[in-house]
Amino acid sequence: MRIKNSNIVTWLDTVSIEEMSLVVDAFYRIHRLSCLVINLDTLLTRIAEEACRVVDAEAASVMLLDVDQQNLYFQVALGDRSVQKKLKQRVHLPISRGIAGAAARERTSINVSDVKTDPRFFRDADQISLFETRSVLAVPMVDHQELVGVLELINKRAGEHFTDFDTRIMEMFASLAATAVLNAKLVQDKLNTERLAAIGEAVAGLGHCIRNIMNGIRLSKDALNQAVYEKQYEIIPDAWPILSHSLDSIEAISANMLSYSRVAAIEKTPCNLNKLVSDAIALILPRANDAGIAIEVSLAEDATIPVDKFQIQRVLWNLLANAIEACTPQGGILSVGVVRQEQHLALVVADSGSGIPPEILPRIFDPFFTTKASSGTGLGLTCCRRIIEQHNGSIVAENLPSGGAKFSLLIPYN
Ligand SMILES: Nc1ncnc2c1ncn2[C@@H]1O[C@H](COP(=O)(O)OP(=O)(O)OP(=O)(O)O)[C@@H](O)[C@H]1O
Ligand SMILES: [Mg+2]
Q1: Ligand 1: does its nearest atom lie under 6 Å from the Cβ of 323?
Q2: Could you tell me if the CB of 30 is within 6 A of ligand 1?
Q3: Is 289 a domain residue?
Q4: 354 C-beta closer than 6 A to ligand 1
Q5: Domain end call among 187, 207, 227
Q6: Which of 90, 277, 281, 308 is exposed most, by the fewest CB atoms within 10 A?
């Protein structure tokens, strides 16, 4: 069946309903894909595959424009993977050469039915792919006047050459591909800007934090100098905890930074979680006493579980430090519980401190999120979550109805 209303656009004249429905179907699939797929390579590959199917070509490729070098390189080449790789690595077609180059330069579709008779034909790709090109349809990919690349269809099957209808439809495909490339660039630019902003913020936050700690170290160093050189030994008990706390803070920051920047493989060995909890509490006890915080502990009967001991220690230190900070200066209660469940060992760290404002609750595990200005880096909870997830476990934060925050961790036995 032919479309009847042929006096509007002449090329539609020759199109059958079957061909049209094939095209509409392909556009529908590409539209759906472009809503779902973020990866540019995947999207362009699917566009090339659909293009091949619609015009019944043997192969298709998407070449993108390198604006600085003024050449075209293969972003997608359908077919054998090793050939694709070679084409991507080795073929850079100056836009002054080849049929694709001419389509890019002149921003017009070029339909060549027999490449052997066309002096513009560039043989490099055929020599690498061992593919014999007979006919080519090269269509420039343009979006908002910007040339992005060239969509190339190779060898119309059954020995025919590409038609006017093929050219028109491929121009629409090329336009879709161009939009996809520019959208991907926009997303990448936005991500880069956000990443740079986040790095800037993180560096600024770290700088403040380290300066704060250095102030503590300088203060205690001056006091200890005074104690030693002027024999005022009574100052030492005041100066020493400041120095010790500052050194602990530097150690905690560098450990969190390291744990954040490179994901170390975890090494599980059977550990008694009760012991890890008791050891961690013994370490923070002086700080808790100073801040007027009482500690309640409830341990499980059997708390042996395969974990990476050093990483779980890090989790405990971070959670206990946060709980103490939330109860300072007003004092309060910090409770730690270990409970044996069927599939998991549960660890709960709760405090009667300030609680977590509901509006920041969704962000507390984000890297560099902190409400502690220059005294926090915002990496503590990020590292906790990463470590627990590496153990295939989970960590959840909530506020207690009685006030304060509760962190519940589940660590599976295997
Ligand atoms: N127990 C808690 N009570 C109230 N707020 C908390 C508690 N634990 C964490 N938070 C909130 O979550 C934020 C992020 O915590 P996180 O441990 O990641 O960073 P930080 O404590 O600010 O800095 P640091 O890198 O030194 O640990 C904190 O700044 C705080 O606002
Ligand atoms: Mg913290």
Answers
A1: yes
A2: no
A3: yes
A4: yes
A5: 187
A6: 90
Do residues 181 and 72 make contact, with C-beta atoms less than 8 angstroms apart? no
pTM as predicted: 0.56
Domain that holds residue 115: 10-187
User: Strand locations in 69-122, DSSP E?
Assistant: 71-77, 92-94, 110-112
Q: In what order do the strands lie in the sheet with 136-143?
A: 92-94, 71-77, 57-66, 146-156, 136-143, 110-112
* Any atom of ligand 1 within 6 Å of the Cβ of 372: yes
| 177 CA → ligand 2 middle, Å | 46
Q: Say if 254 falls within a structural domain.
A: yes
Q: What CATH number does the domain containing 388 carry?
A: 3.30.565.10
Decide which of 138, 162, 187 is a domain's last residue: 187
Q: How many domains does the chain have?
A: 3
- Read off the pLDDT of residues 49-107 as tens digits, 9 standing for 90 and up: 999 999 999 999 999 999 988 999 999 988 777 777 777 777 888 999 999 999 999 99
Q: How far is the CA of 339 from the centre of ligand 1 (A)?
A: 24
Tell how far the Cα of 245 is from the centroid of ligand 2, in angstroms.
15
Ligand that lies nearest to the alpha carbon of residue 353, given by its number in the listed order: 1
Are 247 and 320 part of one and the same domain? no
Q: CATH number of the domain at 155, please.
A: 3.30.450.40
C-alpha distances (whole Å) from 137 to each of 48, 153, 238, 255, 280 are 13, 5, 82, 58, 70
Q: In one letter, which amino acid is 274?
A: N
Same domain for 407 and 271, yes or no, is yes
Q: Looking at the CA of residue 249, tell me the nearest atom of ligand 1.
A: 26
Q: Note the pLDDT tens digit of each residue in 253-306.
A: 887 777 777 667 789 999 999 999 999 999 899 889 999 999 999 999 999 999
Cα distance between residue 332 and residue 363, in whole Å:
25
Question: Which residue is closest in CA terms to ligand 1's atom 17?
Answer: 380
Q: Are 239 and 360 in a shared domain?
A: no
